[in-house]
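step: validate -> pass
step: tokenize input -> pass
step: predict -> running
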Amino acid sequence: MIPQSFIQDLLNRVDIVEVVGNHVQLKKAGANLLGLCPFHTEKSPSFTVSPVKQFYHCFGCGRNGSAITFLMEHSGLSFVEAVEELAGSVGMTVPEDETRIPPGERAKKQAKTLALTEVMTQASRFYRQQLKKAPEAIDYLKKRGVTGEIALRFGLGYAPEARDSLKNGFEDYRASELEEAGLVIEKQGDEAFHTSSKRYDRFRDRIMFPIRNTRGQVIGFGGRILEKGEPKYLNSPETPLFQKGNELYGLFEARQAIRESGYVLVVEGYMDVVALAQLGFPQAVATLGTACTPVQVQKLMRQTDSVIFSFDGDAAGRGAARRALEASLPLVSDTKGVGFLFLPPEHDPDSYVREFGPEAFDALVKKAMPLSEFLLEEIVGDNNLNTLEGRARAQHTAKSLCASLTPSALRLQILRRLAQITQTPDGELETFLGFSKPVVQTRRIQARAPRPPVVGLERQVLRLLMMFPRFGEELSPDDIDTIKGFSPDQGELLMAILNAYGVMGEQANLAALVEHLRLDGVDCEQLVQETVGQEFEAEPALLELKGAVRQIKLRVLSSELEKLFSSSLTTEEKNRRYYELKQQQETLQKEMNAENLRQ
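step: predict -> pass
step: emit ->
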């Protein structure tokens, strides 16, 4: 786990204006910068970046966060990947668990990763150069309708037919990195026959499709044979850089199109992705010759709320769709949807668009079968629901599939429909499936909405502490107890902010505080929405904080005084307490009057 201290230090060194400015055109607008939001389509800019707060916020869709959050949401990186990328940009090294990886081994691992990345980059450059000299490969791509522009966009290349053509691309063909990266195969010799080992290229006479990670680095290749032969497609083997179950072909190239279209289309082959980009569907990606995995679905859901799988309508296509369904079930929610598009057996996406046109294909995408419908189809299968046995077998299938669904309104709806078709009372079905009563799961990031109006005093205290975490030092234990007593529902959030500041110290700012709270699982999104639109200088903000705390104290005192007075002050103890409270009230009022005069 990355230490909070490192994350805070990183955010203090990184300039969010530079990070966001690499992807969004920003213009000065007062103290902030303004641009078109990269997360939704808009004509008038509502996306602001604050150099002071080191925070971005869109008043149109509500997205907000630090430089780390921006890379996660814009580039589809995981938290660790975003931290690593930012750390690299400012010359910092992300610390790891010292007990797990010794420093020497960690440095060796980083050097190896860098060496393999350089080898793959050099190989990609070599294959692109070879494509220019390969008329047969160029003719093949032209026949498939691939233009030079699309070939350049995807970095397409060609691996020559010779067994060791990579000798022309590398000074040292015997380098161990070539084998570790999966570019060459080392065939061991036989000592009995006094034969030496033999090295040869893995990819020969193939169109080369570079596979990039979300940072745009080449981590593997897919190669399609030009003539007849097997295998038709050949992928890089598993390497330290490349794990097939974790990557998707074309995701790096499709990111912007995915955001603009609002969905990602998952197809089966490299050529489908390239051809669809040529035909007006640049939001397509492909799995890498294996069944879809939860890791791949999770990567896609970082990019969009809607994932559409496109498969052939034959038995093999249904089988692939079933595996994609199983991979998606743990990740779908009320706001993250999955659909299934089944094409006629004689068509793939490329051929369908060419025959019927983009509009017809787009209409099919819009009518894709929702996950809930496909799930119920798979549960029912060939079972005869008019018999007890058929309904029992359907419920048995449902038990294994539905177990992956997380508590949500969607799960509730699926279970209700399943109860209807199997003629089982809701409660009995939930018990059989091992669920307690389904509850709606609230997203941590709430529905995007305009910033709400200012509410109570305690809320204003929380906002000011979010903007200036160091103000936590200005609150005494008595202040904290008073605020918690005045508004218990806000007390938990107040303590989370104060505890975070206690960990982070003087250098804490809004961006670092929000990252800290989100990592701790604190639901602070509504407060963030309320805070980002406020602009305060530190000195007047501190005065406002102190004033709000005094007003809270005055209201608490007034409430207690009313209760005492209504009890008729029947005891000496009540009388004493009454006059103590009156004295505190007068002192606070004098302080407020003096503060007002100074202002």
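step: describe -> The longest helix spans residues 103-132.
step: cleanup -> pass
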